[in-house]
Amino acid sequence: MRTLSLALVVLAATSLPVRSDDSTAALIAGGLVLEKADTIALAAEDLYLSEQAVQIDYRFRNLTDSDIETTIAFPMPDITGDSEMLVSLPDPAHDNFLKFQSAVDGEPVESQVEQRAFLMRSDTPPVEITARLKALGIPLVPTTTATEAALRRLGERQRRDLIAAGILERQEHKDGTIADAPLWTLKSKFWRRQVFPAGREIAVRQSYVPSLGGLASLSYGGPNLDPAQKAHYATRYCTDPTFERVAQALYRRSSADGSRAFQAYERSLSHVISSGGNWAGPIGQFKLVVDKGDPKTLVSFCGANVKKTGPTTFETVMRDFVPQRDIEILLLKTKTGE
To answer: What are phi and psi of 41, to 5 degrees?
Structure first.
């Protein structure tokens, strides 16, 4: 695997430090999951990743002389109610919180959504509580304002029953207010039955708005980053010495005394590609395009034979591809103003 790093322009001028412990956790999504079918081949997959959109174009080929009907699914990432973690949701008010869309041979298709809520404990099997939450009128997404409002409408005895069952956790804040935080995990997926016509290819497109991770300032490039943390970045994002030096320059500039004219911060984007391969053989041709959005953004990710194809885009193409790891992208972003 070769590191992709793009250095920014020489950094000058001064600015106030930007420091915050605020961080946003990403929900990691993936692509299409096919029922085990060794008679259907994935001839090609084109994957486009950016902060604004993820788009996956598949070309499936039925290797037989008979139509095959099977289930294809798009697993949504799990969402866990955690008051200590800020989660990025593109559309938190709806079941389709990643704005997932699908099309077959250029025509939009509808998928069914399945959502179930579980209590996940390390020492016992998961306990499903979907029916109990629905009976109380509580939305299944545990992190939305609609869920908070539904919990506030419950009577005190109902809330205490949920606390006793481990579904809620009572929290007392420093200002004396009380909040009951959800503890369940939402598991959901979109799915549908799909016919693969005998002996020919069909084109399947899936798209969604990614959930991004991030920090309000820079961690990578900072003087307090220890060797183990640097190794984590190198393993996950294939950062290299050139990338690190430019990140250190970004950190120094964003930490310098002066006005808040320059700020630097981290974003991360992940996409699962290692868990869906239930088709026949490897992927015939896999193309990955990463679009960093802003020419000034510094980007690093792991990839073989990566080529710069535009001011913000990078591309790698592999044949007979068998995914061994998921895609992890680190973006060091800057902004000026104030």
So the answer is: -105, 150
User: Predicted confidence band at 255 (pLDDT cuts at 50, 70, 90)?
Assistant: confident
Strands 23-25 and 86-87: parallel
What number of other Cβ atoms are within 10 A of residue 274's Cβ? 12
Closest CA to 143 of 205, 199, 76, 92: 92
Residue pair 211/90 in contact by the 8 Å Cβ criterion: yes
CA distance 299 to 149: 40
Question: Which pair of tokens denotes residue 294?
Answer: 């802003």
Confidence of residue 203 (pLDDT cuts 50, 70, 90): very high
The predicted model scores a pTM of 0.82
Provide the phi-psi class of 311: left if phi over 0, else alpha when psi is between -120 and 50, else beta.
Answer: alpha
Please provide the average confidence, as pLDDT, over all residues in the chain: 84
Q: How many CB atoms lie within 10 A of CB 46?
A: 16
